[in-house]
Structures are given as C-alpha cells and as structure tokens.
Amino acid sequence: MAFPETPLDVQVDLWISGAWTDVTDDTYTQGKIVIERGRADEASQTDPGKCTLTFNNRLGTYSPRNPLSPYFGLIGRNTLIRVSVNEGTPFLELPGAQADYATTPDAAALDITGDIDVRAYGQLTNWLGADDALATTELGSKFDASANRSWFFGVRDNLLYFEWSEDGASVLSASSTVIPVVPPNGRLAVRATLDVNNGAGGRTITFYTASSGVDGTWTQLGDPVVQAGTTSIFSSNAAVRAGSISVAMTAPVGRFYHLQVRNGIGGTVVANPDFTAQSVGATSFADSAGRTWTFNGAAAITNRRTRFIGEVSAWPSRWDVSGR
Fold first, then answer.
1. Burial of 310 (0-12, 13-18, 19+ CB in 10 A)
2. How many CB atoms lie under 10 A from the CB of residue 9?
3. How many Å separate Cα 248 from the centre of its chain?
4. pLDDT tens figures, 81-123
5. Nearest-CA neighbor of 143 among 103, 176, 193?
6. What is the DSSP letter of 278?
7. Which of 1, 29, 52, 42 is nearest to 314 (CA)?
8. Has residue 311 got a pLDDT over 60?
9. How far apart are the C-alpha atoms of 170 and 202, rounded to whole Å?
10. DSSP E strands, 265-321
11. How confident is the model at residue 242 (pLDDT cuts 50, 70, 90)?
12. Distance from CA of residue 258 to its chain's centroid?
C-alpha cells in the first residue's frame, strides 16, 4: 500500500558534537510526530515551523543533567533536531564540505582537447550568492593541482562560469553575460559549451539553462562569449568530479541529479552519472558511458527528504530511575 496507509520511513537526528546523530530508535514514530509548516490560509507570511514528537527517556538519555547519559554535556536548550523521510527518487546528497563529491578516474575518453559540452542538473541551495572569486560554487571539473588542470564548470559572481587550461597551469575563462534565473525550488539544469575554433580566428563559449534534465530543451543564457584566438584543452590525468574540487572554492549544497560530459558540442557522451538511477546507499556504480563512480566524504546516494529542522526548546530534567 502507499502512504498514508503504509507509514513512510522516518528518521530523526540531533546535531551533536558537530554532526547529525540518528536517534530514530529512541523516537515514537508510529503516528506520534506532528509537523506544522508553511503559511496558513489567507496569511500574509510564513509562520515558524513546529514539530511535536516523543522520545523514549526511560534511561534518562535525553535529560541533560544525567551524568550517565551518552549525551551528557552535549545536548541542552536549542539543540538542533531534524526530521526526514526516506522516500522518492534518489539523488546525490552534497552536504557542502570540500571533501564531499563523486568522482571517476581519468580515462582516455575523458582526455578531451577540442570542443567540449558540460551539463549539470541539481537542486542546490547555493546556486547564487557567491561574492568573490574564492566563493565560486562548483559543479563539475577535470581539475587538480596547479599543473594538472583541464576544465572547470560552476558559478562565479552569480554568473555561470567555465574555465580551462591550455598548458595545465595557467587558465582561461568565460562567464555568462546574464545571471541565471533559479526557480524557487532551486532545481535547475545548466550547460556550458566551448568551441575551441569558431572559424573566425577565435573561440566561443556559450551558456544555457533548462528547467529539468541534461537531455531536455535548452535556452541560451545571454549572448555567446567570443574571445580572440583559437584554443585547446590540456589533457591532464585529473579525475572528473561532480561536486567540489581540490581548491578553496564553495562546494555545492543540496541535491545533485546528473552530470554529463560530451566530447564535442552535442557530441559523444564520455561521462554520464545519473544519480537518480542509483540504489540508495550505493557506494559505487558504472554510468552509461562506462565510467565507474565512487563517493568521497559525506556525499552519498539517498532519497532523504527533510520535513523539519528546528531547535529543541527544553528537555526533561527528570526521569523514572526504575526504567519503566
């Protein structure tokens, strides 16, 4: 049966010692969790969210003054709490640390030196908002140490941004001429193409957006960026990454659905990780182009949907020492 006849798989976490700690086993989840969120009928603004639930505190685990509690000294007033359900289409969860990304090793098919077409699709909370060069939001790359760079795709100064190297060290770059419009739900597909020789003694970088998917209908974002001189892309041995890269930039935060790399504009697909087609909890998978992907840091395939994040206003100071 479907929801609501069959309850969803609920998970409750507390923010303890700088990380989310699963406390679902101590939570009464069968019809005992009530969440209020959003805007009431005819209201002019969104009300603060509210969640009501019950913990099993027979052992005094959630009494901050209990020295025998494993959380003694770690929980108290305004401890963060998160309630989520595991349901729906999977995705690559990117919590936002520099170590959080999916990666595939270098391969001959990935050593593109001519025209390239890179596409990404995600639902991020930080598409925009970068206020300096080091706050670039990263999407995909074949980009490593200073002498091992091929290309990089992301958002810089609120503009779609593509960067590449001809020699592995120095870089060339281009940004879209207008800011992309991010829907309220944060779900957006973006694309960058590099024509290394436009036939007029120059190179052309073009940016696109789409409402969904890397294989849908693309809308050109602003004007093509035409630069003087033909170019090429350095054939590095760097891995291809979805998410953060190994430099001091801003890692994407949210749900990453799909990355696609093509050799040539609209050409052969050489990397194609579709994270929505993977099993929850998978530690590696092979994409349709034959690339094997693994995960680093806290990046993971999940279908978790967060329904509430708030603070615990008070904890019980007493418990029944009989354990009843």
1. middle
2. 13
3. 17
4. 999 888 889 999 998 888 899 999 999 999 999 999 999 999 9
5. 103
6. S
7. 52
8. yes
9. 19
10. 268-271, 284-286, 292-296, 300-312
11. very high
12. 10
pTM of the model: 0.83
What is the rounded distance in angstroms from the CA atom of residue 241 to the CA atom of residue 15? 29
Comparing CA positions, the residue from 287, 226, 233, 269 lying closest to residue 119 is 269
Q: How confident is the model at residue 133 (pLDDT cuts 50, 70, 90)?
A: very low
- Residues 306-318 have a mean pLDDT of 87
Running DSSP on this structure, what letter comes out for residue 250? B
Reference 225, options 278, 300, 159, 276; nearest CA is 159
What are 122's two structure tokens? Answer: 């995600």
Contact yes or no for 64/75 (Cβ under 8 A): yes
The DSSP bridge pattern shows strands 219-220 and 202-210 to be: antiparallel
Rounded-to-integer distance, Cα 278 and Cα 124, Å: 19
Nearest residue to 257 (alpha-carbon basis) of 240, 238, 272, 239? 272
